[in-house]
Design brief:
The chain is an all-alpha fold and 345 residues long. Helix 2 packs across helix 12 and helix 3 runs antiparallel to helix 5. The longest helix is centred in the middle third of the chain and has 40 residues. A two-stranded antiparallel sheet has the order 1-2. It has a single domain, classed as Rhopdopsin 7-helix transmembrane proteins, CATH 1.20.1070.10. Helix content is 72%, strand content 1%.
Length: 345
């Protein structure tokens, strides 16, 4: 399931025994209009991914006292993952290709040019989204358990474990034998079918099911509470907590939309159905997957009110005095961090 076609790299390889160093754009064939358009799209997506996620990280770090809850630490971790993946993607797509014919070349082939790092980051992103959905689930539906399971010390252990899980899970990709284009070749159709089903279940179906269960349960709980409190005034904290939960739910929906076409077609391909990796449909699916690296900052900018206020305080100098009075409480207390203590009502 390579987002960078193996055929694109083939002309850059050499049969010489000497080391090779080619810019990614230097090829031995005429670049088609389709390839040119894709390069432009990839460059735009990668650049927006860096810009958007770097902006989110900057706001979260500078205003870290306002984003001190576990929820926001997971959101920051998500932006860090997407930021790094945007850089990795642009480097793979447009960076130089150095492939010596020795053990270093073998290492680069298995851990870099076969996109191991990029896909490991995609898995890390998925694991982080699952953790975010579970944290919101317990905070909303089981606040007492939330205080026990999600203490302030959890992120110090949990976030490194999220990264470790992603890169460990994807190690199989580096262990599979590679062909001349550094793209893993299964070798056996039976193994490919088995791994295709296993990867679909572990890398897509289980995470999607977990997140869907979490957010459906949250929505049902919020509806019940809305009915119980429809005659009572809704506090600012209740509105803020509902807003961060809706924001997380939108992130999940975008994940489903971006990843479902690719996951289903890749499963069908591993089961033996013909699939053309040079088709326009494949290119569209790839672009949609890559768009997932830039959707989250857009969601935060238009939906996450707490982020909007802190963004203004960091970047809108002319708005600081005006917004300062409105955001005083959020600087002292992170609304998402009050779930465990105030959701029991």
């Amino acid at each position: 399931m390579s987002t960078i076609d193996a055929s694109y790299y083939t002309p850059l390889l050499t049969t010489s025994s000497t080391d090779t160093l080619f810019p990614t754009g230097e090829t031995h064939y005429e670049v088609s209009t389709k390839e040119t358009v894709l390069r432009i799209i990839y460059a735009v997506i990668g650049s927006l991914g860096i810009l958007g996620n770097l902006t989110v990280c900057t706001v979260f770090i500078i205003r870290r006292k306002a984003f001190n809850s576990i929820t926001n630490k997971l959101i920051l971790n998500q932006s860090c993952i997407d930021l790094l993946n945007s850089i990795v993607f642009l480097t793979l797509r447009f960076g130089p290709r150095y492939l010596p014919h020795n053990s270093l070349g073998e290492f680069l082939c298995r851990f870099w040019y076969n996109e191991y790092v990029m896909w490991a980051l995609f898995i890390t992103s998925t694991v982080n989204l699952v953790c975010l959905s579970l944290e919101r689930y317990f905070a909303t539906c089981h606040p007492v358990k939330h205080r026990t399971l999600f203490s302030n010390k959890v992120p110090k252990i949990g976030i490194p474990c999220i990264w470790l899980a992603g890169f460990t899970y994807e190690l199989y990709w580096a262990a599979v034998p590679v062909d001349y284009s550094c793209y893993p070749a299964w070798g056996s159709k039976g193994v490919q079918m088995f791994m295709g089903i296993l990867l679909f279940i572990c890398g897509y179906l289980l995470p999607i099911s977990t997140m869907a269960f979490s957010y459906v349960s949250i929505i049902m709980m919020l509806r019940r509470r809305t009915q119980d409190r429809q005659k009572a005034a809704v506090s600012a904290f209740q509105k803020a907590k509902k807003n961060v939960t809706i924001t997380s739910c939108l992130v999940f929906i975008c994940y489903v939309v971006c990843w479902t076409p690719t996951e289903i077609t890749y499963l069908m391909y591993n089961l033996g159905y013909p699939y053309d990796f040079t088709s326009t449909a494949h290119d569209v699916f790839v672009v949609v997957v890559l768009c997932n690296m830039i959707t989250n900052p857009i969601i935060y900018a238009f939906k996450y009110q707490h982020f909007q206020k802190q963004f203004q305080k960091v970047f809108c100098v002319c708005c600081q005095n005006k917004v300062g009075d409105l955001g005083t409480v959020s600087v002292v207390v992170d609304p998402a961090g009050a779930d465990a203590s105030s959701d029991m009502g």
